[in-house]
Design goal:
- By secondary structure, this protein is an alpha/beta fold.
- It has seven helices and 13 strands.
- It has two domains: 183 residues, TIM Barrel (Alpha-Beta Barrel); 73 residues, Alpha-Beta Plaits.
- The protein is globular.
- It comes from Bacillus cereus VD184.
- It holds the Pfam family Glyco_hydro_25.
- This is N-acetylmuramoyl-L-alanine amidase.
């Protein structure tokens, strides 16, 4: 595997050289709503010119749930829509309930059309922000030099890495969860989900959701209301059908008697 790097205007990139090493790049779009990353458009152009798949991230400064939605809309408007995933970068406490603010940010991005939305959460803020209760598609945590103490899909293991063609120190990342690289790069166009249910009580659905999340640590699990007194759990998305099938079989063995099936989305 090559290199997964996150980049901002603090680095200057020679894409013809850097692209030979990069498997995936995560590009900063903005710092709050007021600061637009000076190198973002150049980095997008470089990724596209040299075939490097990329995601977007925004450093969050919101001070309320409504402000979080505004920041999310600015992020969506400024970010290139070829990004395969959008990350909310939460590192500083800017409101009392950071979990609620972050969820509002994520939900607004989904409403606008983002198919995958993750969080980048400072290791020392994970518990304070109740990151385990945030409904996100991927979790990305920085910690040097030791691995994070919390479940995550990406581990930012260095802030002093080196990549040929990129000036100075570079943030570098490892895959640490169950999601393969192609889940992040979007190299597979067909996605799958696992649906579980249906439940006729919200409490039952909520209890089942917690049990599934504990069993599938690091997976995206959320509930969907179908109609009055009808709820369904959704696990995924999966970009690999075999991975989805394997997870479905594990769930059936762990939760016999539950209705569950694979959905092609």
């Amino acid at each position: 595997m090559g290199v997964i790097a996150d980049l901002s205007h603090h680095e200057i990139v020679n894409w013809s050289r850097a692209s030979k090493q990069l498997d995936f790049a995560i590009l900063r779009v903005q710092d709050g709503s007021r600061v637009i990353d000076r190198e973002y458009q150049k980095n997008v152009t470089g990724c596209k010119a040299y075939g490097v798949p990329f995601g977007n991230y925004a450093f969050c400064r919101f001070v309320s749930e409504n402000d979080a939605r505004v920041e999310a809309r600015d992020f969506w408007e400024r970010g290139d829509k070829d990004a395969t995933i959008w990350f909310a970068d939460i590192e500083v406490t800017t409101m009392d309930d950071m979990r609620a603010g972050t969820q509002a940010f994520i939900d607004e991005l989904r409403r606008l059309g983002a198919k995958r939305v993750g969080i980048y959460v400072a290791h020392h803020k994970y518990k304070e922000f109740q990151a385990d209760k945030i409904n996100a598609d991927a979790v990305w945590i920085p910690r040097y030099p030791n691995k994070p103490l919390f479940p995550c899909d990406l581990w930012q293991y260095s802030e002093t890495g080196r990549v040929d063609g990129i000036s100075g120190d570079v943030d570098l990342n490892y895959l640490t969860g169950t999601k393969p690289l192609k889940w992040f790069t979007g190299s597979v166009n067909t996605n799958f989900q696992i649906h579980i249910g249906d439940f006729d009580e919200l409490t039952w659905a909520g209890d089942s959701k917690r049990e599934v999340k504990e069993f599938l640590e690091g997976y995206g699990v959320w509930d969907m209301r179908l109609e009055k007194n009808a709820y369904r759990l959704i696990v995924g998305d999966f970009c690999d059908e075999a991975w989805c099938d394997e997870t479905l079989q594990r769930l059936k063995e762990r939760f016999p008697g539950y209705g569950m099936w694979k959905v092609n989305i």
